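Open question from group meeting: does this chain pack into something compact, or does most of it stay loose? Before anyone orders reagents, we agreed to write out a predicted structure and look at it together. Recording both the input and the output here so the notebook holds the full record.
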Amino acid sequence: MLFSAVIFLSLWLLQTVFLQKFYNGMAIRSVEKTAEELAGHSADTDFYDVIDEAASSNSLLVFVTDAEGNILYSADEYKRLYGKTEQKEHRNENPYFSSDTVMNWEKGALRNLPYSYEYLIEELKASGSDSVGFVTDDNAAYVTGIVLDNGNILSVSMPLGTVGGTVRILRLQLVWVSALSLVLGFVLAWIISKRFERPVAKITDSAKQIAAGNFHPELPKGFCAELDELSDTLAETARSLERAKNSQREFLANVSHDLRTPLTMIKGYAEMVKEISWEDAQKRESDLNIIMREADRLTALVNEILEFSAMQSDGTAKEYGVIDLSRAVRDVAGQFLPFCEQNGFTIETKIADGLMAAADEAQIKRVVYNFIDNAVNHTDDSRKVRVSLTEENGFARLEVTDYGKGIADEEIPYVWDRYYTARNRKNKAVVSGLGLSIAKEILTAHKARFGVDNRKNCTFWFELPLCSDAVS
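Structure tokens returned:
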């Protein structure tokens, strides 16, 4: 309705209030242009025919006079109704003759000069120019005059007050058109809004159901492409929320389980120390070692949970300095030497020297550590793990390979999920299931390429672009 009102207000202003101004401007330009064109034909033998055509086509009053104001020729829009061959005895029937005064009929002098002609002559003399134009004192007409090459004067004028009747007709038409259009606009708006109301109301109700926990509401389809797209987006949102809720539920269940186990053992062995083994030094020492081991395990688990949560919540982009990736990988591999010597594991290394990359050194070391720790937990009875760092096509590529049975194809999509542990893990030590999830968060933040290759043994890898800068 508001749009319709603005449109019709614009039409009212253009066709009633400003129509006279537009008409005057167009009339003035038309008179000036026509006068220039007629002046260009002044030397033609059919000059007067050209004048008749212009006067009839453009509703003009045209005079050609000599320098003293004697009429040589005149024409207006009605000239053709009477023609140029009228006989003198029919003069009284011709409205172009103002009296019985003898006039030069053969030269086409059908009118007396208008009252503004004297002013036109004065303006031409005063301006010193070959052409002038002006609006008459009563704003009734626009007059332009041009001195022709032969010294004669061409006067062309057009009335400016002729749109009054047109304005009255347009105003009456606009009243009816505006009223009918506003009524029609209201009816159409009401019908369209009612048609849109039903599917929008259903979508709103479905959104409320999703907020209440129903992730499979009935969503309307088929009304229009835009609402169908909205329904599809809402359905995808519902599926994402369902996955998030299930993941949250699983996360809480796993955390609860992993926390409950060490807490139960700590409490149980503490009670044993208190009730049974407090006098037996050897037994007490063993029980206390178990308590400390479980406390350390609990601390590590809590730290991993906090670290994982912090990584997920920190979405800010970072700028990394250049690090010696070769040295970082060697340092991490060296951390496993005591464990390997104690448990009979072997870590084979093939690390290229001097590979530089833009990264956070502590975080990349954590990724390498988690990859090696994962390989140790999944290798076969050979207890061998292979760590390789090479240069490939401008990238530093790290590969950590275990020699176990590999990961089942159906499990590969889930290896990066939090709290996921493969069923074929050889090392039965309890792990949190967050190691690879943390590695994924770190590598994603570094915009690194990474993945798992299960075609031969099982290899976890990542690639970082090489830098030529020296380590600062």
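Observations to bring back to the group:
Residues 85-99, 101-109, 422-431 have pLDDT under 50 and may be disordered.
The first helix runs from residue 2 to 17.
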